[in-house]
Every structure is written in C-alpha cells, then in structure tokens.
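Homework-ish question, so no full write-ups if that breaks the rules, but can someone show me the predicted structure for this set?
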Amino acid sequence: MKAKKKSEPAEVFRAEGVTKIYRTGDVEVHALRGVDMALYAGELAVLLGPSGSGKSTLLNILGGLDTASGGQVLFRGEELTALSESALTLYRRHNVGFVFQFYNLISSLTARENVALVTEIAENPMRPEEALDLVGLTERMDHFPAQLSGGEQQRVAIARAIAKRPEVLLCDEPTGALDSKIGIIVLEALTAVNEELGTTTAIITHNAAIREIAHRVFYFADGRIASTHVNDRRLKPGDVTW
Amino acid sequence: MLALDRKMLRDLRAMWSQALAIALVLAAGVATLILAVGAYRSLDETRTAYYERYRFAHVFASATRAPRGLIERIREIPGVAAAEARIQEFALLDIDGFALPANGLVVSLPAHGSAQVNKLFIRSGRLPQNGETAAVAINEDFATAHGFRVGSQFQAILHGRKRRLNVVGIALSPEFIYATGPGDFVPDDRRFGILWMNEAVVEASYNLENAFNSVSLLLRRDASEPDVIKHLDTLLARYGGTASYGRKDQFSHAFLDAELQQLSAMSRILPPIFLVVTVFLINMILTRLIALEREQIGLLKALGYRSTAIAMHYIKLVIVIAVLGVAIGFVLGTWLGDLLTRMYGDFFHFPFLVFQRSADIYVASAAISVAAAVLGAARAAWQTLTLSPAVAMQPPAPARYRQLLRRRSALLRHISQLTVMVLRHIIRSPLRAGVTTLGISLSVAVLVTSLFPVNSVNFMIDATFFQSDRQDATFTFGDERPPRVLQDVARLPGVLSAEPFRTVSVRMRQGQFERRTQIVGRPPGTDLSQVLGQNVTPVFLLGADFSQILDQSLTQISLPESGLALTEKLAQLLQVRQGDLVTVEVLEGHRAVVEVPVTVIFKSFIGLAAYMEMQALSDLLDEGPNVSGVHVAVDKRYEADLYEVIKNTPALSAIGLQKVSLEKFRATMAENIVFMTLVYTSLGMLIAFGVAYNSARIQLSERGRELASLRVLGFTRAEVGRILIVELAIFTIAGIPLGWLIGYGFAWILIQGFESELYRVPFVIERSTFALAALVILAAVTVSMLIVRRRVNNLDLIEVLKTRE
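A: Not a homework solution, just the prediction itself:
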C-alpha cells in the first residue's frame, strides 16, 4: 500500500461491476462476472489466476482493446465504456502501453524504428534512444527483430510501450515465452519503468512467483476477483526464484 | 465425409469471396477462348454449309455478249460440275421517299427450272415467274433498309427505260453476302440492291436476246481452277470476256473472308494471351494463398497425416476453385460466343447458323486451367511439407530485413516509420513484389490489347476515306467515255469540282506469280482523290522493320510519268521490287500485253491496287484519253437538285456516294467492334479486379498481425489501412507503364494476324487507350482496396495478438 499512502495517490482505473459475455453461436461464455477494482497512480499490480479466469479480458477492457458487456470502467474519472471506436484508438495512442507474450514487433523495422513508430504519433514522447536505454538496449538499437534474442525483442516491446510516457502499462504474460534468466531481465525493465517514470503497471502472469515484485496482487477465479493481497515487502526481480 | 474434406469445404466457405474472385479470373480466360474460337468456327462452318447447300460458284466470268449456246461448251470444260449463264446489268433506282440515287444490280433468273449455281434462299414470297414482266425478287439487306415487303413497289431505269417493279420475293444469295454498289468501297444497303428478274424480261430490256454476259461455274472436287479459268477465258475471248476469276477475287467472298480472317486472328491470338495471363495469375495467387496455411500444414503433419494426403487436401481445394472457374468460363464463353455468332450472322445475313461446339477447346481450356491451379498449390504446399512439423507450426522466424540505405541517412529520418515498413517489405521480397506488379501489368496489357483495334480501324477509315478519297460522290460509267464527259458532269447542279479517272482490269505477272487486279489511272496532282501511302523506308532495329510502328502518317504519292505505282502488298504478291518489270495483260479492249516498269512501291492500308498517271495508262492501252468515271465534290446546298437529275439520267449507270456510305459503314463497323471490344474489355476488367482484390487480400493475410499490432499501439484505422494502400499503390503505379509496354507487344502480335489481301490494318494505339486501360486498373484497385479496408477496420485485435500467427 506504499503507493496509496503517499499523499493520496490518484485513482487511475476504477472498475465497477464489470461483466463480459462472449457469445459464440448458442453458447454464452461469462468471462467476467462482476469485477470491482481500482488501480492507483504509480502502482504495480500483478493479476494471477488460472486460464479463463478473466484476467486477460479485464486487461483488454482496461486497455481499450475490448468493451465491457456491463458495469462501468473509469479511466481518470472518464467512462471508457462510452467511448467510440476512434476515441478508443486515441485513448490507446496517448495513454496505454501494451506488452504481449509474443512481442509483436514489426519485423521490417529496427529496434529504434519500432520505438519510433510510437513516438511519431505520441504527444509527449521520449526519444526512442532514451526508451531503449531504459531497458538496456542501447547497443542493439539498429538491429532488426530477426537479429535479436527473445528477451531482447521483449525489451524492445517494453521500450516501445513506454516511449510515449503512457499513464498505464498493461502486460499480458510478458515473460511467458522466456526462460527464467531472461524473464528476470524483462521484469527488471518493467519495475525500472514503474519506479523511474511512475507508470501504473498491471502484469498478467501464470507464474505465482512473480507476485513478489508487486505492490498488490489480484487473484482471479471464475470471472471474479477472488482475493486481493497487499505485499508489505516487495522483492526485486533478481531475488525472485522460479 | 473425411474430416479433411470437411475442413476443405469449410475453408472454402470461409474464403468464398477470394475463391470467387480467383474463379472469375480463370473464367475470363476460359470464356475468351471458348467465345472467340466458338464464334469463329461457327461462322466459318456456317459459311461453308451455306456455300455448299446453295452451290456458291467457284469461278466467275463476264463478257459483253456471248451466245446462249456457248454455255453447253462451257459445261464440257473438264472439271466443271455445273455452269449457269445469266445477264447482269446495273440499273438506277428511284425509290419513293428516298432522296438519294440508288443502284440496283439486275440479275437474270433461269427461264426453266431453278438455278444450278448460286441458288437463292427465299426468305419470303417467291421468285418471279415466266411472263411476269414487272416482278422482282430483292435481297434481304436492301428490303430491310427500305422496309420493302412482298407487294412493295419501286421504280428502276433499265437500260434507259423507267419502269415500276413489284416485289414478289425477298431472298439471300451466297454470292451477295456483301453487296457493294459500283463506285462504293463499302456496303450501303439503302443505295444498293440486287434485283433478280425473269430472264426473258432482262434479255428484252438490255437487248441481249439469246445471249448472256455473265457466267458462274461450280467445279468438281478434283478440278484445277487455273486450268478451268484458262479454258473459260479462251471460250469467252471472242465475246468480250474479261478474265475469269476464282472466289478469292469475288468481292463478297473476299470481304467476308477478310472479316472471318480477322475473327480468326482474334481467336488465335487474343484468347491464348488471356488464358496464359490468367493461368499465370491463378498460379501466383494460389501459391501465396497456400503459403499462408503453413501452420495448419505443420499441425496436420504433427497429427500424423502423410505429406501426400496433406498436399492432396490443398490440391482438392484449388481444384474446386479451378473447376468453378472453368464452369463459369464454359457457360459465359458459350453464351457470349453464341451471341457473337448471332450478331455476325445477322451482319452477314446468313440464312441459318451452324453452332460449332468444339470439344477440343473446352477440354484444352479446362485442362490448362486446372493444371495451372494444381501446380501453384502443389508448389506452395511442398515448400511447407519439407519443413519439420515443429518448425512449420512455429510462426516463421521474423523475416530478415536490411537497412534501406547503408548509412542512416538524413533522408530516412523524414520518412515515417509506416513508410519505411512499406518500403522495406517491398525490397525484402522483390520476387513477390515483382509478381504482384506483373499481375497488374498483365491486366493492363490485356485491356490495351482489347481496346486498341478500335483505334486502328478508325485510323484506317480516316486515312482511306477522309484523307485519301475525299470526294463526295463518284460517277461510274458502264463503259469508257470520251474526256468531254468531264465537262458534262461539271455542269451538273451542285458540282464544285470534278476529277476523271480510268480503271482497267488487268492481269499482272512476274515469273510464276500473277494477280488479277485493276490499274487506276489519274491525272497528275489530283485533289479530291489522292493516292496516299507511306514511302517504304525500312527502319531496322534488332532485325525487325520498325518503320510501320514509327510513322503511320501518310503522304501523297506522286504518280510517276511512266511506269506503275504498286501497293507494297501487291509488290509482295508479285515478288517485284522497284525497277523490276511486270507483264501487264489488259483484260479489255485490244487486250494488249505489255511490260511495264515498277517505279514506285508504297504502303497502303486497302487493296491491291496499281496506279498510273492517266496519260501513261492511255498510252499503254493505245487509246485516246477515255475516262471510266468522275470523282466530284458537291455543294451541300444543291445536293437534292443533283440527286434529282441523276435519278432521271439513264446515261449515268451508277453513282457512288462516299460520305453517305461511310457514315453507315462506320455505324455497322462500330457495332461489331464495340461489341467485341466490350466483351474483351469486360473480361479484362474481371481479370484486373480479380488480381487487385486477391493481391490486397493476400497482403492483408500476410500482414494482418502487424497491422493489428499497430492498431493496438494506437494507430487509427485510416493510418493502418494506408499501409496496404501505399503498398498496392506502388505496385499499381509500377505495373501500369509495364502493362502499357506488354500490351503494346500483345497488340503488335494481334495486328499481324489482321492482315489480308483486302486491307492491312495500321498499328495505331491512341493515348486514350493507354489512359483508359490505366483508369480501369486504378478503379479495380480502388474498389478492391475499399473492400479490404473494411476488413482492416474489423481486425480482431485481441485474437490476432493472442495467437502466434
């Protein structure tokens, strides 16, 4: 609760009674069955839970990639559910950074250019070199994705996500495709960004060990938040073992 | 049903729009072959059947007056199956409500029994019977042009005597499929009709009792035409016979033949181009389509399917698409072919049509199409099958790219990363970029090839009738007249200027080569009717003569004071060069045989004519300065007066009205060519659209993941859509000029097939044709892009990012 104690940190996200129903043919899948949560500025949250428990769905809704079927999602007091498709695009462009399990880099652009892709359309971005420096990739800036290792590619993805100085960084299984050694380097990059830029960060993971680096941990089960845990003592990524 | 087959059908349903687009491209190729070859073969077969059933003569001859008894001796010529003697004479017509003077060719019908040669097909009514002095059967074209039916009447001046004729029948003859009046270059059904009348009536009218002036011969299969002609000429020589000739010099046949030859050229050249282009495109599209199935193929292999089973799976998929395309092509091609056959059948006034369904064309087009499709699919499937299943199931490793420029240039900093993406993507796979560009080029090329014949024909008509023969009308006299007739004509109302000419039927010979033709004599420096052509100065480049391509402009050929000016075509047929001597055998008058030097050879679009200076021709004929006809320019204000005088002047046996005929001819010609062009252009458009749409769709499939990533990063739909648009735009912009070039080549090949003895079609492609082809492609690409844009807008962002590929 470190973030909250510091002079009443602002609420970045507020979700109230959020539901999400996917209809495929005659089958209705209740991906979210009423989620209430809040994320605060500068907070690093980890979302844990088994497959299908609803954590990715929530992250996608928070990130403006998907819309809720019911309930309310507020971003800095603004109702996300009311935004149009193009408003959501601008919301993503200016406020949200994404990191995915499979990097999703543009293979025809170098590391620097992949980051520049975002800085060209952002309002107050850092220089691509600066962002790459933050994730420790200064030396590899002019390499193409094909010339980078998995961990390096994921760090480019992180640099690309944070270069616009987003309000929030949403990471879906950022270490899922990496071994532990590389995974730790990636997590270090994420915590560094969280600490140095104060970016509100939400990380989805299957890996329970990672919860140790968070301020708060949300446990998902069956489309709901089953419990919330506040870490009194956070570990550095390097001290986490898995 | 096997699970794999079910998968195939579901895949097909999922990609129905793409499958249909591919099928339609293929259908266009198949349809072109079937329609063109089908129409040509049907018309050719119809003509053959018509000629056979109606006993169209093989040899024709005319004389001034031959005794009727001579026909028996003609029938005894070895090789002659049947011979028919008759009288043919021109008559001036006066038709109520028709201001222009018209001509009729009066043809006598046998007094007893029906004709053995050139039988008539009676469309309605009957033939005139013995004793019916005013009864006439007329050809259908003429009847239609004036709305004549059985019972209609009109007036004709037969040998100076005006009389009223009753239409008792409407008929068709294989001899007059194309009927062109004297002095006219092109058929004009309003101003020229065939009048079949009772033999006794015609004999009496033209003072040819017990005589004939025209004979047609049907030969046995084993007969030698040259021998028969020689024999016939000997028999007719005493009776003023001009040289006999075979079908190839019979006007109607020659014209029809030229027309069919053009159709045949179209069918031999255009469809293979279409088909080759489409099978190439199909192969290219399917290769890329199957390459996208990489992970599915890996999965099937992992599940234990044999490579052959997997390959078969995809081959089945493309076979279904190919078969669909071929089936659409069959239906479309057959339908359009029949339509074209009917249209030409109407135009030629065939009494019946024989529709040829040639199995070979159907089988060949189907086999080529399916083979091309299967090869494309198999090649792509095989590339993936050689990978291990584990590798195949992985998304392909990030593609390797290179820096656009060696150093990070300042230039690159000014281009957005989206543009860099596009450029690198193109540079990375030059083959793919090249193939897409080529696909677009070929669509452009096909359009240029389909559109340009209109330009060439228009140029030819313009050059011949508006630049070369600028007279408003031509008076032709049945026989030679003294030069003072020129003054008589000049005094007619409305005549602004008059130029005489002399035509002589001759046979030209050089070694074993000989040709029956006409020498046209003209005074020097004529203005109305000029001899226009291109001087033959070959421009050789890479061993080919490019002079024709480089310069289509025509100049007036000044006739030499002595010697002959020949068209290049005639010079080729006789194998003569400038300065050579040819033997000219005059086929009338004193029948002189003289050697004449060839002083000028020039390129001309129409005919096998030979020209001489009028005085030189008179000298050659050893006669005075006689004229055969007069070209005149007419003051429009006095046209009606002039026509009125002509209609009542028996001395003028015929008048040709160039401008009037031409308008009509252009209209007919336009009808045929426009329809033809429309068909080919529509098919070309179909190909263009199919290529553009599939290129865009495949591009989307290949790059869907990247594009979705960009959307997640906050790029708008428009920005993301622009990537695809810019890429396709680059291919299109590069493809259009290349397509013009390829189209130019295709068109050149096509024009070579158009050449006949009657005319040589100039190779002219107007800029508007290139522009139109480009516009059609741009439209096809734009429409495809709009459709694909909708898909970009509906990209499932989450799904794309969750799955690996």
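Now go work out the reasoning yourself. Hint: The two ends of chain A are 25 Å apart (CA to CA).
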